[in-house]
Design a protein that fits this description.
- By secondary structure, the chain is of the alpha/beta class.
- The protein folds into two domains: about 130 residues, Urease, subunit C, domain 1; about 280 residues, TIM Barrel (Alpha-Beta Barrel), CATH 3.20.20.140.
- It contains 13 helices and 19 strands.
- Strands 1, 2, 3, 4, 5, 17, 18 and 19 form an eight-stranded mixed β-sheet that branches. Strands 11-14-15-16 form a four-stranded parallel β-sheet. Strands 6-7-8 form a three-stranded parallel β-sheet.
- Strand 14, helix 9 and strand 15 form a beta-alpha-beta unit.
- It is globular and about 70 Å long.
């Protein structure tokens, strides 16, 4: 039995308004693993139309049925969880996190990478994971350990084995940068300071880096298609041929590639090379976003960080182009658990609330190759669900009011605040 199982069951009971005495008194009459969730409404991850008065029947780890509550009420032996006033929806997905970073307002990035003990960073990351989960984000794509090597692999194992609470994790491990293009910076040139990502150049070095990272547990390869080279403005790093080699090598192992790119040329090269998502895209133009759309490349704007004025313009162009937009915040630059600020920023910048919610659920699931498991409230998919107080389509701040977070792995495993 998983170490945290009983704790998470208690979280589930408290958040659902089901008293412990009622739960234990009725457990003997309930069908094992059969739960009926009765919210005020359901957002299924796709439809703009809320399913008012619907319920969801969960058996074991999967959604068995959904429909009008009165039609499901007769489910024999089901434990009923009433969620008055709440919206039941898919667990939120964070497409761009850095679980081993903490806010730069606390400690500058240079100092986190070059001066903080690895054990300290890992210990802090356990709190980051918990806060992420309590915020309703049940899955994250973590795009680089920022100098912490392969520490993310062990952290993921700790979550999967029930040693610590946390969301489902997709890892990009160390990430790949061109030599001399990253940091930490500001040290004497004669010092060989460990970098925030793995430096690699040319055929042999890039092949080795990609294959090694995959072998050590990377679910995604992240490459920096441009960066600042120690200057204030970014420039392309890898050639188009180098980027194509990275993508080809990763895809031959079934691993997708994400590219950090803020410049027009960096975005163009990454798109032509065949990456599956571009992160940031500050300088994106209508022409670049059209190219991305035509080639099936998703855009992760990270509106929560960086130049907000420039990002607002590129985000508007992205919406108008019809390119696939995923929700990823670059959390770690700011506090973990505040992930919802990205959805709020997307809406403030012109996206409809329902589209922002789709972005953080069904669209993220599709882009991250998880759509056969999560991202929708749909029979046959995993019961990866949250309930929020209110209607997030009418008021996006409702996603900050988590009433329940439910995720089942192995035995009964429920998580919440």
């Amino acid at each position: 039995m998983r170490q945290y199982q009983s704790i998470f069951v208690l979280f589930f009971i408290i958040l659902s308004g089901l008293s412990a005495s009622r739960y234990f008194a009725t457990a003997a009459q309930q069908a094992p693993g059969l739960i009926l969730l009765k919210p005020a409404r359901i957002f299924d991850g796709e439809s703009p139309q809320m399913r008012e008065g619907w319920a969801v029947l969960v058996r074991g780890e999967k959604i068995e049925a959904m429909g009008p509550a009165n039609e499901l009420a007769a489910a024999a032996g089901a434990k009923v969880i009433d969620l008055p006033g709440a919206t039941l929806m898919p667990g939120l997905i964070e497409a761009h996190s850095h679980i081993l970073l903490h806010p730069y307002s606390e400690t500058p990035w240079n100092d986190q990478v070059a001066r903080e003990h690895l054990s300290l960073r890992v210990a802090r990351a356990t709190n980051h994971l918990r806060n992420t989960l309590l915020a309703g984000f049940t899955t994250i794509r973590d795009l680089g350990t920022e100098g912490a090597g392969y520490a993310d692999t062990g952290i993921k194992l700790a979550v999967d084995q029930g040693i610590i609470p946390g969301p489902r994790m997709l890892l990009a491990s160390r990430a790949i940068v061109a030599s001399g293009s990253y940091g930490p910076n500001g040290f004497a040139t004669e010092w060989d300071v460990p970098q925030g990502a793995e430096e690699a150049d040319g055929v042999d070095s890039l092949l080795r880096a990609v294959r090694t990272q995959i072998g050590k547990g990377a679910d995604w390869i992240k490459v920096y298609a441009d960066y600042r080279w120690g200057k204030a403005t970014a420039s392309p790093t890898f050639t188009l041929d180098e980027l194509r080699l990275i993508v080809e090598t990763a895809k031959s192992a079934g691993i997708p590639v994400a590219a950090h790119a803020t410049t027009i040329e960096g975005m163009r090269r990454a798109t032509l090379a065949g990456v599956e998502s571009i992160e940031h895209g500050d300088d994106g133009t209508p022409e670049i976003f059209k190219l991305m759309k035509d080639r099936g490349v998703a855009y992760c704007p990270t509106l929560s960080v960086g130049n907000q004025v420039k990002k607002k313009d590129s985000f508007k162009a992205a919406i108008e182009s019809g390119v696939t937009i995923v929700s990823g915040s670059d959390v770690g630059v700011f506090a973990h658990g505040d992930n919802a600020r990205e959805l709020e920023a997307m809406i403030k910048a012109g996206m409809q609330a329902v589209d922002a919610l789709r972005s953080a659920t069904s669209i993220n699931a599709r882009v991250l190759h998880l759509d056969q498991k999560i991202g929708k409230v749909k029979p046959g998919l995993l019961a990866d669900l949250i309930a929020v107080d209110g209607d997030p389509i009418r008021d996006i701040s409702a996603i900050r009011r988590i009433k329940m977070a439910y995720e089942k792995r192995d035995d009964l495993l429920s998580r919440g605040q």
